[in-house]
Amino acid sequence: MPSWDIYRQQWLGNIRRDLLSGLVVALALIPEAIAFSIIAGVDPKVGLYASFSIAVITAIAGGRPGMISAATAATAVLMVTLVRDHGLEYLLAATVLAGLLQIGMGLLRLGFVMRYVSKSVMTGFVNALAILIFLAQLPELDPARVTGLTYVLTVAGLAIIYLLPRVTRAVPSPLVAIVVLTALSMAFGWDVRTVGDMGALPDTLPILLIPQVPLDAATLAIIFPYALAVAVVGLLESLMTQNLVDELTETRSSRNQECIGQGLANTATGFIGGMAGCAMIGQSMINVKSGGRGRLSCFAAGVMLLILCVFLGPWVAQIPMPALVAIMIMVSIGTFSWGSIGNLRSHPRSSSVVMLATVVAVVWTHNLAIGVLTGVLLSGIFFAAKIARLFRVTSEMAPDGTRTYRVHGQLFYGSVEDFTAAFDLRDVPPRVVIDVSAAHVWDISAVQALDAVVLKFRRAGAQVGIVGLNPASATILERLALHDKPGAAERLATH
Questions:
Q1: Do 281 and 159 reside in the same domain of the chain?
Q2: Neighbour tally for 177: CB within 10 Å
Q3: Do 310 and 413 have their domain in common?
Q4: Which of 23, 71, 303, 391 supports an S-S bond with 415, CB 3.0-4.6 Å?
């Protein structure tokens, strides 16, 4: 947790813009929460209650001020089968368990894994989400479902969003777009789809309840796979979004605290009838672009969402969908890294492949975890291949008949094949020196390769010495090497 002064500043340092941006986010959250509820196969209030609870709790306990967390499609799609086969109560139990798993991951400080996500994967993740956000708006622009007026209002909304900031930034332009288009639609009685057409809004406050499931091993066996998937995918999307908001705001935040905050939010949400969620890149972008920077923006979004749904439902239901579509198109355009298109020519081919593979995998599967893991896997493969290509072994023969092999680069699983092939076992001199002063020994594969080469030379009658070990390489050889231990040949044969 940050110090009290920093924490207080995160709440009170940007009050007006945080409140206004929170209102914009709340209005945009309503149709999304309803849509995610439909995806999961549950009543709209499940997603709306979840969005309220998750937003409020992560605002208090999360690690990233200004980031919006609520019910999301990424977690909703994972719950479809559970709801279909076992019902809502098991969904709530899985939500509680997912939250507890996330708390455990935060306490184990697993947020460090994000350092292994390359910039190319991050760019692919962002671009894929931008594409998915845009594609999600197409049903609301389907000519078979909407009239020409929808397109006019969408364009008008985009005009307000992009042109108003040139006149004034006192009020977030997305909020003005919502207010103006709603007022015009109500005044003229235009026939366009509204928020109310998405589903019924709740008319009561959420209440505390215990998921009605048997507390036994059979229940755990049912919900654990879903809870684990939700926990991992939720944290993955949250931490990726956190990185993005860090870059946009040029600030740093606590990943492990975010894991704990998300876990607390999901655990509590399961006890008020809500489904699990995580950070939302689209809503976070709306918040940041509307001026939201502090914890108050996320808190206000959650509280205003509940107030709007429960107490102002008839008014909120009349918000035209084109206004919200315009906002999400703005988010899509702003989220996409347009510079990455030009970088395809200038960046290394491997980086471009990783970025494109991440985009394709996410868009194709609609699963952020699969896309990101694809990108991370390819990044690892390309990195290992690059390091392996920089590896080389040279040799020279001294007048006294000693052959010295000098190893340059990183000796690990990816380079052991080249390492082994570099030694000439057909013409073995009486003495062999393996100089690793310009190399580093990384893993068990490298140690075993060294063992194998040393023993082969010894069987051929040569005296073998390894020189130039740095302290770290010497330590791993001391622990794992067999060539300097009795019965080395037999012991190596069993490995």
A1: yes
A2: 26
A3: no
A4: 391
3-state helix, strand, coil in the chain (%, to 5): 65, 10, 25
C-alpha to C-alpha distance for 130 and 108, rounded to whole angstroms: 32
Kindly give, in sequence order, each residue whose CB lies less than 8 Å from that of residue 428, ignoring residues fewer than 6 positions away: 457, 460, 461, 462
> How many residues make up the chain in this entry?
495
Q: For the full predicted model, state whether its pTM sits above 0.85.
A: no
- Alpha-carbon span 183 to 163, nearest angstrom: 19
In terms of Cβ atoms closer than 10 Å to its own Cβ (0-12, 13-18, 19+), residue 204 is exposed
Q: Specify burial of residue 113 (Cβ count, 10 A radius: 0-12, 13-18, 19+).
A: middle
Full DSSP string of 354-391: HHHHHHHHHHHH--HHHHHHHHHHHHHHHHHHHHHHT-
| Cβ atoms of 63 and 225 closer than 8 Å | no
In whole angstroms, give the CA distance from residue 158 to residue 323. Answer: 8
Domain count, the chain: 3
Q: Are 311 and 204 in contact (CB under 8 A)?
A: no
User: Residue 488 has what pLDDT?
Assistant: 59
Read off the tokens for 390. Answer: 């920089």
- Going from the first residue of the chain to its last (495 residues), give the mean pLDDT of each consecutive group of 10, the final group possibly shorter: 84 93 91 81 90 96 94 82 92 96 93 81 86 86 90 95 88 88 93 86 88 94 92 87 88 92 96 93 88 94 94 90 88 85 89 93 82 88 85 90 93 91 87 94 92 89 91 90 70 54
Spatial neighbors of 113 by CB under 8 A, at least 6 apart, are none
Q: Cα(264)–Cα(256) distance, rounded to whole angstroms?
A: 13
- At 277, which helix (H) or strand (E)? strand 277-279
Tally of CB atoms within 10 A around 460: 14
CB atoms within 10 A of CB 461: 9
Do both 423 and 464 map to the same domain?
Answer: yes
